Hints:
By secondary structure, the protein is of the alpha/beta class. It has one domain: TIM Barrel, CATH 3.20.20. It contains 15 helices and nine strands. Strands 1, 2, 3, 4, 5, 6, 7, 8 and 9 form a nine-stranded parallel sheet that branches. Helix 10 links the parallel strand 6 (about 230-235) and strand 7. Helix 2 crosses helix 9 (about 210-225), helix 3 packs across helix 10 (about 250-265) and helix 5 (about 120-135) runs parallel beside helix 6. The longest helix has 19 residues, at about 35-50. The protein is globular. The structure holds S-adenosyl-L-homocysteine (SAH).
Amino acid sequence: MSPPSAVSPALQRVLAGDYGVDDLAGLLADGDPERDAALFAAANQVRAEHVGDSVHLRGLVEFSNHCGRTCQYCGLRAANKALQRYRMQPDEIVEAGLRAAALGYGTVVLQSGEDAWYRAEVIAGIVQRIKAQADVAVTLCLGERPREDYALWREAGADRYLLRIETSNRELYAQLHPGMSFDHRLACLGALRELDYQVGSGVLVGLPGQTLEMLARDLLFLRDLPADMVGLGPFIPHPGTPLAQAEAGRVPTVLRMVALTRLLLPDSHVVATTALGSADPLGREKALQAGANVMMPNVTPRAFRALYEIYPDKICTDEEPEHCRGCMAARIASLGRTIATGHGDAPRWLHSQRH
Length: 355
Ligand code: SAH
């Protein structure tokens, strides 16, 4: 597809599966636009061959913005007293999940801050009720919880779990997550794997202090996990956090991360994230043409949307779920792609089930 002249030696090594950290870091750096074009074209081709042209839609319910953590970058951090907090009741969460199913989404994602108010049994009950009433996969994204909780939810029917490593660099992780432990994060990801969840992970791109070499190592981390799904977004500084004055992550770097993720994990799902769409109006379209094959339309009731402010100027906070459905469909159609049907399990995970 791409003219061979634009395929740099580093990209050639990545395509041959014989590359090092330096190759990845080099491809992540700013440079010749033709080099980027060759990278994106290669990732787009691998995406088409391995996961096809259809785009999976995951309906996202942001059900609580209470959080016990103090992640330096996140607007939901406990220390941000300016944020008005909300919690949806279990009945409301089930209703939102069923609304997502009615819109045709094959997956419902339930996401929140780390909110201990929802006991494990309550979450299990919500999962069970959604699974009993709709033909959907359920993905949870509730942060770090005891292994017993993850096990209970898996038994209740949860299919997938999203837990980003945020950065695979220990020192940077420690700086950004006061009171948290990198090893514990790894243990959570390990437990989720063992419980046979499809595991989604990912990183924040452009964090203060993050180098291209760290990002290159993040790619190796996601490859070796291995992640069934990868979400990558630019860091967007939030005024209510200690990183308010920091520089934002850059869209081109995120797109190069998306493309390299696709090349390293051809059979996994890669998300065109909302954060990317917030940083650049066409950010998600660009990601879909550089290796991504998943989007996450918001199905949070409009009354709560603006309050789930992990970063400022988040898109679609003034819209109803039905509107998001139409908007996503138009964006996907504009690229000549189609909307996937079914639950959209990760091919990588499906293959592992056959052995
Ligand atoms: N409590 C859950 C959900 C966190 S919100 C958990 O711990 O998994 C989902 C993701 O938003 C986080 O994993 C993080 O990568 C991203 N995020 C947080 N703050 C952000 C910011 N300022 N800019 C961009 N993305 C951010």
